[in-house]
Amino acid sequence: MKVEHQNEAATGPQMCRTIEVAPPPPPPAFAHRHLPPPPPEKVVAAVPAAVEDRDREGDDLFIPPLNFAMVDNGIFRSGFPDSANFSFLQTLGLRSIICLCPEPYPETNMEFLKSNGIRLFQFGIEGYKYIDLLPSAQMDSSCSSYAPACVLPEPFVNIPEDTIREALKVVLDVRNHPVLIHCKRGKHRTGCLVGCIRKLQRWCLSSVFDEYQRFAAAKARVSDQRFMELFDVSSLKHQPMSFSCSKKYNN
Amino acid sequence: MKVEHQNEAATGPQMCRTIEVAPPPPPPAFAHRHLPPPPPEKVVAAVPAAVEDRDREGDDLFIPPLNFAMVDNGIFRSGFPDSANFSFLQTLGLRSIICLCPEPYPETNMEFLKSNGIRLFQFGIEGYKYIDLLPSAQMDSSCSSYAPACVLPEPFVNIPEDTIREALKVVLDVRNHPVLIHCKRGKHRTGCLVGCIRKLQRWCLSSVFDEYQRFAAAKARVSDQRFMELFDVSSLKHQPMSFSCSKKYNN
């Protein structure tokens, strides 16, 4: 069953297109991958050796998507996955994917989601650069935290704050975990969303930027970093976090 | 109690110096951070709001160590942590640290380990480059997979295969998780060890190199990549893995 509806929490039209391609998978696959501590004397394999051999031998290597990485418990990031990456993605036991690109999701990818019970949250953010020549008084509210583009030293890139905020809520909801965040190349839009996650985790800004730059490399944008710097996480502070930096889970 | 002894599995002297600075912490802190799925209708905070405020407000931001990242469930990587990073490291609930540097571990860091019940596994691998001018016949067995340095296009960097193999065993033992792997800058020695983990996870070599280069950046070494390419994981294939790429935990 294919259900397409607006996210209730969205504040504007088309901010998030949520597509359920199949009923949500019943077992929390990610949690199952965390084994209880093994017996103290010997670490033993949980499956017969024959199965292990079949799993790990042969030429069928995994191809993670471009710029793939683990962000934190139950949260992954990457560039746009294609069919070559599907067998790898299956090993993550994903419950949902957050796509930050506005283009219609490719049919092949939709089929993959359908057959694996993965829910798609699509937040369309344009990936191209453009120069906004409007004076600051005419800029819409999502851009209010920026100085007018005409005084910026590089083309203004519109990372819409409200959309990132809605995407963040999806990321923070552990019912969606394990979740993969992706855009086209896993650099700018994904980098900004992950940067906001890091701010919620109380990372200092230089560490947030260091991580952003590791993925964006030569394509790093000052405007993206300015977006992350200005992003206010105070309204999200009451969201529960299962992150490794959330002290409450260490007590 | 400070106990210093040779790792039983080590095949040579000083391959691994294991230092227990305190009794192992009883609770598996990392596992506790994974919340059970919240009630279906509403995600609720697990701690009182007042505690949340105290945790997340104020100026006390976390400073992750240089090149910090999550490798997989229960496995982190970074450059050498210093006292500025300790409050961040505490949030990870580490059980152990794998240090790949040969120098004596700094006293401040030892105190941190002691007060947090973290076990240190030290595998001393030299970090500097040197040109090995010995003919191939005189190279020791750990270098047997390399061509003689004199024909390599760059200085030969000695990543000792046996030491990496012993370090891998520590990484794969979930009793040591959560574990932080670090060297000096988190680029070469750490990058090689993580690359071997990725091979165990059956990542294709181009993805292994892509990740290595993301951290090493301009300092990437062909010899490190050659080491990872030649590293044979077949003898480790019967080790249990709690990785996200281990299919057995998704069934």
From TrEMBL, chains A, B:
Entry EC number(s): 3.6.1.52
InterPro entries per UniProt: PFA-DSPs, Prot-tyrosine_phosphatase-like, Siw14-like, Tyr_Pase_AS, TYR_PHOSPHATASE_DUAL_dom
Q: Which Pfam families match?
A: Y_phosphatase2 (PF03162)
Matches recorded under SUPFAM superfamilies: (Phosphotyrosine protein) phosphatases II
Q: Name one GO molecular function term.
A: phosphatase activity
Enzyme class (EC, first level): hydrolase
Q: Could you tell me which residue ranges the Tyrosine-protein phosphatase domain spans?
A: 67-242
Q: What is this protein called?
A: diphosphoinositol-polyphosphate diphosphatase
Originating species: Trema orientale (Charcoal tree)
